[in-house]
């Protein structure tokens, strides 16, 4: 009588094992992790203290390390990028020449951007003689969206 009981237990174990194997085959294996300079700099698998960013696709030259400040362009004129100031006039980055510039690209729909705005506002006030802080909105509606948003948040 112990033989049929042993055979039943063995059958159940085999059935359970087969069911687990079949269930495992139904799931896709996770995609291999891609190298991500930002993620590696945050400690996600980087073995080195200095993490190189992806090479510049246009030139093929390696980009500056993520955790280092790239000072190779020190003293050069900035890009000729322009944007619209709150008064409606066109402003270029070159118009800020002569003092360090903290350029913050943000949007009203970006929660982390909005959260850092009071800090940037405080930095702009406290360091107005040392650095210029410029916040450029990425909202497609421009001042139509940003002006009421600033009024509501009192930035």
Report on the structure:
The chain is of the alpha+beta class. It folds into 2 domains: 1-69, no CATH class; 77-153, Glutaredoxin (3-Layer(aba) Sandwich). Helices cover 36% and strands 12% of the residues. It is built from 4 helices and 4 strands; from the N terminus they run H-H-E-E-E-H-E-H. The chain has helices spanning 2-25, 37-41, 111-126, 143-153, and strands at residues 82-84, 90-92, 101-106, 132-137. Strands 1-2 form a two-stranded antiparallel ribbon. A two-stranded parallel sheet has the order 3-4. The chain is elongated, with a radius of gyration of 28 Å. The termini are far apart. Residues 36-52 have low confidence and may be disordered.
Give the helices and strands, then pairings.
Blueprint: H1 2-25, H2 37-41, E1 82-84, E2 90-92, E3 101-106, H3 111-126, E4 132-137, H4 143-153
Parallel strand pairs: 3-4
Antiparallel strand pairs: 1-2
């Amino acid at each position: 009588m112990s033989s049929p009981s042993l055979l039943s237990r063995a059958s159940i174990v085999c059935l359970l094992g087969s069911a687990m194997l079949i269930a495992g085959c139904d799931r896709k294996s996770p995609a291999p992790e891609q190298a991500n300079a930002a993620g590696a700099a945050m400690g996600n698998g980087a073995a080195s203290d200095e993490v190189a960013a992806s090479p510049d696709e246009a030139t093929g030259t390696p980009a500056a390390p993520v955790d280092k400040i790239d000072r190779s362009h020190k003293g050069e004129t900035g890009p000729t990028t322009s944007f619209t100031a709150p008064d409606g006039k066109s402003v270029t980055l070159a118009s800020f020449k002569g003092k360090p510039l903290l350029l913050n690209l943000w949007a009203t729909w970006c929660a982390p951007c909005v959260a850092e705005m009071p800090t940037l506002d405080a930095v702009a006030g406290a360091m107005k003689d040392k650095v210029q802080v410029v916040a450029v909105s990425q909202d497609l509606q421009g001042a139509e969206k940003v002006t009421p948003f600033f009024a509501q948040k009192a930035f």
